[in-house]
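dude i think i finally got it to work??
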Amino acid sequence: MRNAHEIDFRIFGNDIQVLEIELDPNETVIAEAGAMVYMEEGIDFQTKMGDGSNPSQGFLGKLVSAGSRLITGESLFMTHFTHRGYGKSRVAFSAPYPGTILPLDLQQLSGNTLIAQKDAFLAAALGTKLAMHFNQKLGSGLFGGEGFILQRLSGDGLAFLHAGGTIVEKELNNETLRVDTGCVVAFEQGIDFSIQRAGGLKSMIFGGEGIFLATLRGTGKVWLQSMPVKKLIEALVPRGENAKKEGGFMSSFLE
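look at this
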């Protein structure tokens, strides 16, 4: 028996995907505010502070939980979708930018826990706990694409992340993997995440891979994305505008 609600799901599409959750009566799925695409008859939704993983939690606890989400850059509130009717009913969600939706069963992960970048969470079965995860290494916080504060998802139910482009799953066995800092989506808690310089001075300046790389070391699974939203935005901005911004920055710097 799981503590989290046992939801069923389907994922539609390739590049811009839709996640459809099928709920039995009184089952609930939690999601980021604004992620809903459609919902069928019988679905009731409420915006609440907190993830609802601890029903006995008082107002202060919910406030602390909501505040931690605000620090990670997410909305203060979450939306709870519950099937109040009979039979089965469905509610669907989509990611805020093109990419891939990644379904994960937390019960099958090390320690029933997943560490994810702060904007990767899309939805989860009620009973999933979302909390801040501080990266204890200062360098990772200052220079890593994921920042000093990450998200920790824990529980025994289904959780859904979204990422830009294609998702690649790598399994490390006491190994080390070096990755572009923005390409890390999530990793199991047995993985150590840190930042190191991208080779020598020439490689750092002219290599085109950035000054720093993320280093993932240990035993466990790692999920990577091929197109971080930052790179997507940079690709969509005309080169002239980029040059203008860089010129303006240099002018202000020289002044």
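Residues 138-147, 201-209, 249-255 have pLDDT under 50 and may be disordered.
im so relieved honestly
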